[in-house]
Amino acid sequence: MSAPIYDRIALIGLGLIASSMFWAIKRAGLAGEVTGYARSEETRNTARRIGLCDRVCDSAVEAVEGADLVVLAVPVGAMGTVAREIAKALKPGATVTDVGSVKKHVIEVVGPELPKDVHFIPAHPLAGTEHSGPESGFAELFDNRWCLLVPVENCAPEPLARLRTLWERMGANVDEMDPEHHDLVLAVTSHAPHLIAYTMVGVADDLRRVTDSEVIKYSAAGFRDFTRIAASDPTMWRDVFLTNKEATLEILGRFTEELFALQRAIRIGDGQHLFDYFTRTRAIRRGIIEAGQDTDAPDFGRAKKAGT
Ligand SMILES: NC(=O)C1=CN([C@@H]2O[C@H](COP(=O)(O)OP(=O)(O)OC[C@H]3O[C@@H](n4cnc5c(N)ncnc54)[C@H](O)[C@@H]3O)[C@@H](O)[C@H]2O)C=CC1
Ligand SMILES: O=C(O)C(=O)Cc1ccc(O)cc1
Predict the structure, then answer these.
(1) Does 149 contact ligand 1 (Cβ within 6 A)?
(2) The domain spanning residue 44 has which CATH number?
(3) H or E, element range at 69
(4) How far apart are the CA of 119 and the centre of ligand 1, in A?
(5) 148: alpha, beta or left, given left = phi > 0 and alpha = psi -120 to 50?
(6) Considering its fold, how many domains does the chain have in total?
(7) The Prephenate/arogenate dehydrogenase domain covers which part of the protein (predicted)?
């Protein structure tokens, strides 16, 4: 147990990320009290039943009153509305952060809603699962994962350092990034891959009507990974694509060009093109493992111990 970092933390939206934050905060004793609010009464009742939050409130305003840190953990498309709802109840000097998967849009819609005497520090934990809701969280979600802090202009150093410490004590490695770069990097590493998985599973579903249950029965590992990703929350991902439009379209444009080139190589029998392409991509995977960046890989421990 370490000393609390904030006296009171308010979690707005009680889904996968907020519930994981709550359990991680409790694991390390990082707050005096954690209050919580979710829009749906059913979610609030579930939270009360499972002991998620020290106090579950029936309004966002009640949850944020007296809070030193307010975490917006709702779908990206709801961030602006929630910020407007809580703005007048925020304690002067409090920090407001979010965990949204897109940063430029959140900064544009949340920033203007907040009073000048609170510190707004956007953040994004690069950790999640395909599950959602108050019962899906667990304390270890952020262990050894990255959390990106995206400080806005003139961000005060003390609140920034305090938020960094919170994420570190919840188990994450912390880095800072500017919003534009964040949205492009995430379009490559997360948003476009999710769209591709959604598409692939959709294609297989169309095919299933022809081949009956063979697609499910003979699913190999690659396709199973796609189905896991494509089971992610529809509201959350709809909002990600609508709010990170520019970067996602840029990456999908490049993806389509490369896909066409590979399609052509297959049609004309250009094995060299395919072989060279797959050799290049294999090297990228090996680079990730050697850098000790893939905590899920079976050889992750080995790569870390070797200090590579
Ligand atoms: N699921 C994931 O793997 C990751 C999600 N994120 C981001 O974290 C945020 C939360 O995502 P999850 O926890 O996965 O979502 P979730 O779907 O598990 O939970 C969202 C919660 O927000 C509540 N909510 C929705 N609209 C609301 C409103 N207007 N006012 C109050 N509460 C409202 C819902 O009732 C629900 O309790 C999103 O912005 C998402 O982009 C970030 C990293 C990973
Ligand atoms: O479950 C997965 O594979 C993920 O990619 C989790 C994830 C989803 C959204 C984010 O903004 C960050 C991480």
Answers:
(1) no
(2) 3.40.50.720
(3) strand 69-72
(4) 22
(5) beta
(6) 2
(7) 7-296
